Request: fold
Amino acid sequence: MTFYLKYRPQKIDELDIAEVRESLTRIVASGRIPHAFLFSGPKGTGKTSAARIIAKIVNCESKARPCNKCLQCTQINKGSNIDVIELDAASHRGIDDVRLLRDAVKLSPAKASKKVYIIDEVHMLTLEASNALLKTLEEPPEHVMFILATTNPEKLIETIRSRTTNIAFRKATAEEIVRSLSRAVKGEKMKINEEALKEIAGASGGSFRDAVKLLEQLALEKRKLDPKSVSEFLFQTKDINIGELIDLLISKKTKAALMEVERILGRGVSMNNLSESLLTSFRESLLGKMGIGTDSLKDLSKEDALTLIKLFSRAAGETKGALLEQLPLEIAIVEWCESSKDTPRIIIPGNKETPKEEPAAPVESAPAPRAPFKGNAKEISEDVWKTILATVKPLNTSIEALLRAARPVGYDGKVLTLGVYYRFHKERLEESTHRRILEDVVAGVIGAPVRVVCTLTEPPAKTEPKVVVEEKTVLTEGEDEDIIKIAEEIFGN
Reply:
C-alpha cells in the first residue's frame, strides 16, 4: 500500500489543515450533521480523506465515532463498504448518470445507517445533470448523505452551492505538510530530520499527496535523507527550477534568464504554471517584507518585489492571447533585467540635470551618443529610436515596417508621441495588439512604463538627415511609396 493511502488521516483530529479540522469538529459536536457537504479546494489537500471520515462518523457502530475497529469503519477504510459510494463526476457527468443515481438513493442502505455518496470533481457535471442532482439535494431521503468535492467550486451552479455546507480546503502550509509527513516517518521508522521534511514540503506545491509521494520515492530509492541530499534529489526531479530562474532575475542576467525560460518550455512546462510559480515566490517575499510570513528573497527590496509582481502579472494576463506563449514572459524579463542598465538616455531640451556618468566598461550593445531627432516639443535621441526599431523588428516585422514612416516628436517622461506620416500607418499602429507590443518594447528600452500616442505629421523635408539602422536607410522621402507598399503587403489593402 502506498504511503498516501497507508497514512492518510483516519480521524478528524488527524486532519492537517487547522480550519477544516476545527470546522468539522464543531459540526460533529453539535449533533446536527448536514445531509450535504461541499468540500472545495486544491488537489491533494485531504478532501477525500475528510469525506471518508465523515462517512465513518455517521455509520460507526461504536460510540467513539469513528472507532476505526467496527465492521463499518474497517470496510470504509478499505473502500469495500457497499453503502459508501465514491463516484468520479468526470466519468459520470451526464443526465442519465444522475438519473440512475436518483433512483439508487431511494433504496435503503444494505447494512449501514446511512448511504453516503462521495462525488469527486462535481463541477464536471453537465448543466442538466447538475439540475437533476439539485432536486435530490433539495429533498433527500432521510437515509442518504452527499459529500461533494471539487477543485473548482466557481464552476458549480450557485443553487447546488447554496444547498450544501461548504468546507473550504486550501493549499497546505509547510508546517502542516511536515505534520502530515511525520505520520509516515514514524510509521516507517525513517531517520529524517525536520529540515529535510521542510525541503519536501517546499517542493510539494501545498499538496499533502504530492509531499507523501516524494517521501515515498526517497524511501524506495534508498536515498540519503539529510537536507542537502534531499534538496539535490528534488532539484533533479522537478520540472521548474524556479529558484535558479529567480536568482538570474535578481542578478539581472538577461540572456541566462531567457535561456532558462526556453529550457523550461522545452520540458513541457506551461508558461502559465511558470508565471504562477514566479508570482507566488514574489508575493511571499513581499508579504515577508511586510512582516507576514518568511521572506526567502532578501536580496530583493520591497520596491523590486512590487515591480516584479506588476511585470509578471501583466505577462500572465497576456499569455493566453499571445501567438508565442513565452513572449509576454520574455518581454517582462527583458524589461526587468534591462531596467537599471545603461540604456540610451532620453534627451529633453532645457533639462539642466547633469547627465549620468558613463560606466567604465560599457555594455557592447550600448551605442555611442548621437545627435537627437529634432521633434516639435520634447526630444528623443537617435540611439533610443534606433534601439526601439532594432528591438521591435524580431518581435513583429510589421510594426517595424510601419515605424519607418514615423518619428518621435515628443516625450514627457510618461507619454511618447509619434508623428506618423500616413493615416494608414497611424491606424495600424493604434490597433490594440500593435500598440501593446510597441509600448512594451519602448518601456523596455527606456526603462520605465510609457504610453505611445500617434499623431499625423508631415514627412521630413529632403534635407532631413537619414537615420541608419543596421546599414539600411530608414527614413527618406524617396522611399515613402516603398514603405506604403511594404505595409500594404503585410496587412492587405
Notes: Residues 342-376, 464-479 have pLDDT under 50 and may be disordered. The first helix runs from residue 3 to 6.
